[in-house]
Amino acid sequence: MKRIGVLTSGGDCPGLNAVIRGAVKSSQQLGYECVGFLRGYEGLVDPVTYKQLNNKNTSGILNQGGTILGSTNKGRFVARSGVDNREELDIELLAGVKVTCEQLDIEGLVCIGGDGSLAIAQQFHEFGIPVVGVPKTIDNDLSATAYTFGFDSAVACATDALDRLHTTAAAHDRVMVLEVMGRHAGWIALHAGIAGGGDVILVPEISWNFEGVCKKIIEREQQGKHFTLVVVAEGAHLPDGGMVTRERRAENKQAALGGIGNVVAAEIQTRLGRETRCVVLGHLQRGGPPTTFDRVLATQFGAFAVDLIHRGEFGRMVCFNPPSIESVWITDAVSKLRTVDPTCSAVKAARALGISFGDCGTKGSPFAAVEKASAERPEEAEAGFVAAR
After folding, report:
1. Average of pLDDT values for 361-387?
2. Does residue 173 carry a catalytic annotation?
């Protein structure tokens, strides 16, 4: 009997088990056996470690965080050391993976991961290994898909944190700084900041300065509001262009980010003399059960990935193009990161609410550009204006 292989690679996030479950159930419907390789790509070679996946051992995992297959972002399979730096895998390693797939009669391999993990899948495809990709990252920074599963769950976690910080900040007239994940993209900070009533949002895509942050805090105090919520993405650049890291960058690895929240909090307290506290969510955003949205999206991704294998469409990545689940070439998905457009409707809506991005902001209506486009090209701009509102 032909088999379909499944693996989870890179950092964990809510929804991985839902993808596995979706792949297993749809595989059985099409007459395939399903095997899961353990600890990501490491389970494919020397020693090969896998287990049979069936309805029994995947029952009840839909709402579980983490992954029953285990995952890793270390080891022999490293295909990206930075946002644009591709590392070539060893030919013998690729040959070993191909032999494993042939010996186990793997019809196709479902690789679930972020940009780095899918860059590995792309090299598999180029070597003749039958793979399809499933996009996974809480940062929501993979191009060619509107959303990745795990993002909604991470935003829910950050929003809940802001809800809780709001009450304690108001009780003590404090400035509270919440540091969230987001290496190159500020999607979590942006969405959680809007949903959680943040007053200042700092993201990698919008240049900011401490004067702009302090100006917003002072404006709130002049309005009788003696507390402020600041949301900052871990990858937000400092005003001088630098980034805050937890440790020095190791060879062939991206720098470990973290600590910008404490830097921002300390600067606010020094400049304004206001009592300021910082909370770093860190890996709390990766844990726990997935939201309803992520469960549905992940399940669809798993089922669609199996369908791509059944149709022999390898080298493709499943993507969400609302309202449809579609596919694109993996190479197109990992060639460019999806970052926050400073002029997107979410940023404009935030500015319209008075949320500061630590910059000078815009004069007049944040939707002025859209309204101007409406006058020039009414048919093309109508959809954009509705989305902005």
Report:
1. 46
2. no
